[in-house]
Amino acid sequence: MKASSLLVAAALLLPAAGAFAQSSLTTASRQQGGSGTFPTPSATASPVRYTRSLAGGGSITYFGTVCSHDAQHAQFAQLRQVFESSQPTVVFFENPDCGVDSTEAATISRVGQAGYARYLAGQHQVPVARLDDPLAEYAYLQTKLDPERLKVYYLLHISQQFRTRTGANKTLMVKAMRQFIANSRHFAPGTEQAIHNLAEFEVAYQKYCPAGSKWWQAPTAWFSPAAPAPSADNQFLQDVRTAVGEFRERYTYRKLTDLAQAGQRVLVVLDRDHMPAPATSLASK
Asked: Which structural domain range is residue 172 located in?
């Protein structure tokens, strides 16, 4: 898959990221002797699923996917089975609606797991809606975090997604981060006075994550709602985790709960690293 496509897929919170990703990361790959393409995730990575039944007769089924455009990946057959077993009355997906293609294989190849969820919903004549609202979430985080911490969080998040989905090494990660910083006004407006270059980012990262891994090795767990809480000595990650969790509980998961309590069978197809924790999600209340 081309780097520009991977960046668009990776940047679920960054709706404008594709504008500057069109050529820069492909060029960076070729400068390293690559072809402008990146490895696909392992076919052995498994999706995650759980269902919550609510008073009122409805339910919420979460199906957490792995990033794949390979129609032979087992998760796509599993998602078909979930449609048959849960018989959803409404389906939610992440990221912008990029439509579907004429066949299952073409849909998966072009728009991945979210597109395939829409494809199956169309076959079952079930309405679909977007789950996430990145602009609203960003506006909420602006009220909770100062510009420097906000920018560090978004830069870390998009770079971690990029590494996870491409397998990029340190050299390419550094080149990518320079591009992210240079174009951060597109996805982190209001933070222009903070972090102008890689050196300033690394100083800020060391300030907020002094005991953490190297920034280009930031673990997925830092951004996963279902992962254990950050250690007590990292106030930055705790503050971010709290703010993101507050927004999603109030504005993302609440709408799912309301639908299920009204008797709807809700199916949510999302990245498995974005799955809400079963014990804390409003879906379990």
From this structure: 18-40+137-243
